[in-house]
Write a structure and sequence with these properties.
2 domains, nine-stranded mixed β-sheet, 14 strands, homotetramer, alpha/beta, Dihydrodipicolinate Reductase, domain 2, Rossmann fold, five-stranded parallel β-sheet, globular
Chain lengths: 378, 378, 378, 378
């Protein structure tokens, strides 16, 4: 195996939760070394954070532009190879674009961009660049999610009929029901957070999981949002009717006002010969229904799993791996691609996932605003 | 307690599953004695069945009309007091109507009638009769369903925001995917089964559970059915967006093609202060979320439960009661009403539930056929 | 099917919980009619109760002896055929013995007798009588318990290696920790409750479940009780090491001080080729492990179940049946035996189960009192 | 925060599973940098592995003795500060001892030594050294295990009455039932694997969990092993009756022949006021029983958790962390101790845990071999 990949970090400093997740994921399989970063908007904060986590300071730059400029001056075998973009959403697009345009690989948080237009523009840059772009839809890295995908791909469910994805959280409750708070928070300000709160932040994960696992594409959708209050213009809850290839129908449900729910992502997939149920909060249990047979519970690490699933497990069965390990699997897939090694389709979400996601988010908003009508996706 | 109530049975003979359910429910709390019946269309079959379950034969009538006629000739203190209607759906309305019109109390299976019109007509007869009418939405009799209702009524969830009900089964798969079978089966023949398969048979249970537990009424709905095949005109899957009082939104999901699902009725209710999750296949576990507290799991029989819930439990905690016991609770509530004893709102589903249910079913069909538009319920 | 069996009830009046359980179980499959009883020690109470549940009063006797005497005077085709003994423990033996000696069939609550000596004496009476004797180890009637038994019998687990049964409750806590209460309660008074509290009341169920499901016999055991307080002489907690045929080892754990536990009976059985886990509080889920395969979850009512299991289920999969239905299965098995019909081994626990149970209870007491030594069972 | 701690690794090379676990745990919280190692017995293998995971090669030593010798020649601020011992069991003692004697901190896999004598000898070296010694009983690092400990410490369960720990695996089945294999495998050869297989490998984890969570000490025990075959002299299954402070009783069950079990460590703790149930394979769910209240389910990351628990969680509720994160918490605790920072009792298992563990293992063997008699622990 070649040397560790030289990784740059954008964002993720201070007590950023997403920062920890990415950093640990990068370490887990011994593939990456952090060599440069802009952790925070203030250079002083970036340096402090670098010191705190004990990263050499000389490549902690004052801003993103400087990072690009200075790194390009380094010899290619010292230069950052890939940057991980963990900044607030509105910076994903300009940063990822400039990185690709300047020959860097990119690992990027979701939502990929602020708009579908930006997504398509980024796609063009990516195509032109020939570089690796990985989108961190974390949940696709779970061994049991990978197992669903591969089993469906192998035809064991037969033709899919029905899909039902849910992503319920309750965290926005203390904000949304307080008139002052909901007016003040950036999350509910479309100029800062984009056109959608609930669908943009979590609904898109459910959408991605649905397309990732089934290999089907949503063709059209009809969406109903709930804003809860007249003075609020961002969705905090929504249900989306979806239609896919071959007259398959489904529903995507997302909520940020589902009181008491933590991170309730779940999916149910039913096909001619079998069905799957999987829940993110118990990620190592995959429920597999087959006509006329007892329910089967798949767990990671067993030889009966597919290669893609087994590749995502480090320890023997019964040793629970979690969300850090899931993200680490995505980082590993990206590492293979960056090194030019062979990798399987499905090892990490791609630019196409990002473009589909933005297409989905905008379509839900259009559907709702036009009176819950059917919108065709591209 | 007065003597046992004299019960007549219509339908439920032979190996009818619903027949067993009702008969046992009637026995369980020592409230009823079966004194007369028309178990089957053929008199010989009715007599054989009566013999088999050891019911006296002299009041086993050849048909429903004879039962009415002969029973009315008996002295009032010998006469059947209440009839339980367990026949195929299209007979519910004419039987229930004639029974009420002739002064009998009625316990009736769902769907109450074939059409909303019939439902309203039956409601009028019921009003005129002054008799008891109980609709056997079995699932409302579970102690934990009753617990949800009472806790919500007491305001412990605060204002409700979001409701999500599901009823998934997979039993129609072997029929629907076979062109010959799906053309031949009465279940998918609208002249025999009514205007809806999936929504009429199971979706309406989910709808009823939603209104029963929250006390809210669905004001309007938008529905998308899946027929699966062009030559099939009955829904075998559907999703319904619903809007209730006070801008509450929700979704009702029903499917008969959810491969591997058995009897997957479940409900999630989220309010300002808390949330509930309940699943029919584990009926004795009620999950209660409160902001900032550990998840709580309610179980039947504990003193912390409400009276309505405790009334529905016969044994101490940890002794699982099931669906027969749930139905028995409804029979018990009806018994109290028939005897003129005090009973609580919620002890059994009523005529109003039946009318609402038929309104719901028809509205979903209209919504779908008109192109997934919003339909107001009455 | 012949007429209903004429059933007499001994005990179970007033608000007796066990009374409800037996009565409903007798009704559920249309096999029995209650024709006579001594519900309570006071004749007045028996009559009141009979009136309350609407049983004819003329065969409600003042005491057990009168019941025997008067019933024997009735013609055989009117006479009580079987008596169900639901009295306090110390009456089981004299009643069951006299019933058998006088030609009545007997259904009897557990523990069958107060001592092992009594058990052997009753066994002799039973043998001499040629009558049916059914012991209501209720849990053996669950479809999934029956499934375990039949699958093991068919050899699908291979040679059994290890068995682990648990029965944990917490109900005695409020009594045992209060010096006055624990001195006053009859449950902890050996002159009234027999030689063992915890092992006699619940441990014996776990023991029975172990022998019932595996078909193995415990050959020797070593027991350690916990009395909690020096002034208490009855076990409220105990663990039993057991050795069975063929060097199989296991453990039986029972407790009445397991705070918060309701009725926590569970069993784990491991064999050469597979394993089972079953928990009474979720009786319709049976977990089946096979080497190198996903965990399988059996549920009742599916055609993949064995005949004995399917016979114990009335409704299609997904309609939860519970403990009343489990007891009803035992009553049904006894009914077949009483009518002289064919029935399968395992349809109801027998005299042998009762004798084994008393042998077990006494052996645990001897083992503990002799300093936790190994005791051979007969 | 100071610079990363300089970590040396002993063992854990190649495809060692425990190697991955430790390495990732060391990385996760940015506390450690691997600067030297002897990964494998052959120097070539060590170097290859170092290259593979991209560790500088100049401090990859040919053997342990050389590592000690050479590192001692380095200036103190470059020298390895702590070594993590991940070798086969028989090397733990000599390595840990020499490390402590030469002024290195030690992180050590369990079982700590081969014998109780060695354990006491190591304890003496540790005491003399003044260095940090952390034993990697991984499961103590789970947030919900920490939560149990702290809640019990705070008295919320009242006086503990009853403890029941289980550790069931099935992995040895393919070996033990094959006469040739069981004769050949080092795991069942006492000269290589120590005096106990099942109790030494996994039973000791259950024992440790029991003492760690309750703060109680086992005073005496009685053990029964199962060897399965006469030609096998190592336990592959065992049950241990234990007695603790204040007449508390409990049971520890361990098995390697529990077919189908993966890594089934679980604990049940019952006290005067409440009880806990926790299962390793669902580590983020802690079941808390309180008298007269609904069951409560604690999950990590919520403010209602204790500080020790919250310190062990990196992400918000609903983002499952797993066994790598659990081990990382232990490494973090050790890091604080190594840096001389404040840390809480319970952040990592200590020398005392190791000594207790070896005392436990030897006592179980003595008890069994002397005929299942009570053995006092020191």
């Amino acid at each position: 195996m070649p040397k560790k990949i030289r990784l740059g970090i954008l964002g993720g400093g201070g007590d950023s939760l997403i920062g920890v997740l990415h950093r640990v994921a990068a370490y887990i399989n011994d593939n990456y070394e952090i060599v440069g970063a802009v952790f925070s908007p203030l250079h002083r904060d970036s340096l402090d954070f670098a010191e705190q986590i004990d990263i050499p300071l000389h490549r902690i730059y004052k801003d993103f532009e400087t990072l690009i400029e200075k790194e390009l001056q380094l010899p290619e075998d010292e230069r950052i190879q890939v940057c991980s973009v963990q900044t607030p959403n509105f910076l994903h697009y300009p940063m990822a674009k400039k990185l690709l345009d300047n020959g860097f690989h990119v690992i990027c948080e979701k939502p990929m961009t602020m708009t579908y237009e930006e997504a398509k523009s980024l796609q063009a840059s990516h195509k032109a660049s020939g570089k690796v772009f990985a989108l961190t839809h974390t949940y696709t890295g779970y061994p049991m999610v990978r197992q669903m995908r591969q089993i469906i791909k192998a035809g064991q469910l037969g033709k899919i009929h029905k899909i039902d994805a849910r992503y319920y959280q309750g965290w926005i409750n203390p904000i949304i029901h307080d008139e002052e708070k909901r007016a003040a928070v950036w999350r509910l300000d479309p100029t800062k957070a984009g056109i959608s709160s609930c669908m943009g932040d979590i609904g898109v994960h459910a959408f991605n999981l649905l397309e990732f696992t089934t290999g089907l594409k949503v063709k059209s959708l009809l969406c109903d949002f709930n804003y809860m209050y007249k003075d609020n213009v961002m969705d905090v809850d929504g249900t989306v009717l979806v239609r896919m290839d071959d007259h398959v129908k489904g529903v995507i449900r997302a909520s940020q006002v589902a009181t008491g729910e933590e991170n309730g992502l779940a999916i149910r997939i039913y096909g001619e010969k079998g069905g799957f149920v999987w829940e993110q909060e118990k990620p190592n249990f995959l429920y597999f229904f087959e006509e006329g047979k007892p329910l089967q519970v798949y767990k990671p690490g067993h030889p009966y799993n597919t290669k893609l699933s087994l590749d995502g497990t480090k320890l023997p069965p019964g040793h629970p791996e979690g969300i850090f390990d899931s993200m680490a699997n995505i980082y590993w897939g990206a590492a293979k691609a960056i090194r030019g090694e062979a990798y399987d389709d499905g090892e990490f979400p791609t630019m196409e996932d990002g473009v589909r996601g933005m297409n989905f988010i905008e379509s839900t908003v259009h559907s709702h605003k036009q009176g819950n009508v059917w919108i065709d996706m591209d």
